[in-house]
Amino acid sequence: EFGFVRAHAQKYALRRVLRFLRRFTQFPEVVVRCARKTDVRLWPKLFSFAGHPSELFRECLEQQLIHPAASYLRVVLNLDGGEAAHDCACALLSTALHMDSLELLPDILRFLESSQPVATSPATATVAAPLPCSPDGSAPPA
Q1: Residue 139 exposed, middle or buried by CB count within 10 Å (0-12, 13-18, 19+)
Q2: CB-hemisphere CA count at 13 Å for 98?
Q3: Rounded-to-integer distance, Cα 101 and Cα 60, Å
Q4: Which residue from 36, 47, 54 is spatially nearest to 91, judged by alpha carbons?
Q5: Mean pLDDT score, 68-78
Q6: Confidence (pTM)
């Protein structure tokens, strides 16, 4: 019974802290910084309270916070899968280029390359080329 009360108190505290943090424009940045220092197994619970990671990523892009947005790529990959992460990486690449913020380009390109599925059959095993991004920063239609 004590464990249930403790878990309920922790959820309540997390909700209250996140509700307080939402008052600040830095909310998406604070959440991703906490997430990246937290065990990946806890991310689903954190983001069930904080909001969808792809949406928080988009908030970062809207505020031109490209470094926190880059930190969301790994979160999106883990929680939403490769296609969503690829779309976010393309949007980040477009934003970084638009802002002339070139220091993140190698990391973004490396992420795009490493997040590609690799063939599992020995007969078809090849190094996957990065999927291209459309000029508007979105992934091209499949």
Answers
A1: middle
A2: 14
A3: 15
A4: 54
A5: 97
A6: 0.78
Distance of CA 64 to the CA centre of its chain: 15
Q: Nearest Cα to 111, choosing from 137, 135, 82, 139?
A: 82
For 104-115, letters b (16+ CB in 10 Å) and e give beeebeebbeeb
> Is the pLDDT confidence value at 141 over 80?
no
In terms of Cβ atoms closer than 10 Å to its own Cβ (0-12, 13-18, 19+), residue 95 is: buried
Separation CA 137–CA 89 (nearest Å): 8
State the CB neighbour count (10 A cutoff) for residue 71.
Answer: 19
Q: Are residues 91 and 72 in contact, defined by beta-carbon separation less than 8 angstroms?
A: no
Higher per-residue confidence, 73 vs 120:
73
Over residues 79-128, the pLDDT tens digits come to: 999 999 999 999 999 999 999 999 999 999 999 998 765 544 444 444 44
